[in-house]
């Protein structure tokens, strides 16, 4: 029997914070209007750098980042007060490409 992939990645809060801080340093990873964002080779290299520092697989880092980013935008859209501990740390995303009518 084949094992199903785990749905949730086991990142600690500290690892989540480290990942956010690393991605924040590389604007090309999250800002679609950044010139280098369109260069897949550059983005792949940046993700490899992030994964090496995190001591994780690139795919795990990307999945976790996407999950946190999507959760952030979902929380913003609901306009309800949230207790999510990472909410404030992701506010830098407000200043980039995706503009929603909150």
UniProtKB/TrEMBL annotation:
It holds the Pfam family MADF_DNA_bdg. One of its GO terms (cellular component) is nucleus. Its main location: nucleus. It is found in: Nucleus. It comes from the Eukaryota. Residues 10-69 form the Myb-like domain. CDD domains: SANT. Residues 18-98 form the MADF domain. This is MADF domain-containing protein. It comes from Cryptolaemus montrouzieri.
């Amino acid at each position: 029997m084949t094992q199903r992939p785990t749905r949730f990645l086991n990142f600690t809060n500290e690892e989540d914070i480290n990942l956010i801080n690393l991605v924040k340093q590389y604007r090309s990873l999250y800002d679609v209007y950044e010139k280098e964002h369109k260069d897949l080779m550059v983005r792949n290299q940046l993700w490899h750098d992030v994964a090496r520092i995190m001591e994780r697989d690139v795919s795990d880092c990307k999945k976790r980042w996407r999950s946190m980013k999507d959760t952030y935008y979902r929380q913003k859209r609901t306009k309800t007060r949230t207790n999510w501990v990472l909410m404030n740390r992701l506010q830098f995303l407000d200043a980039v490409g995706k503009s929603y009518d909150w």
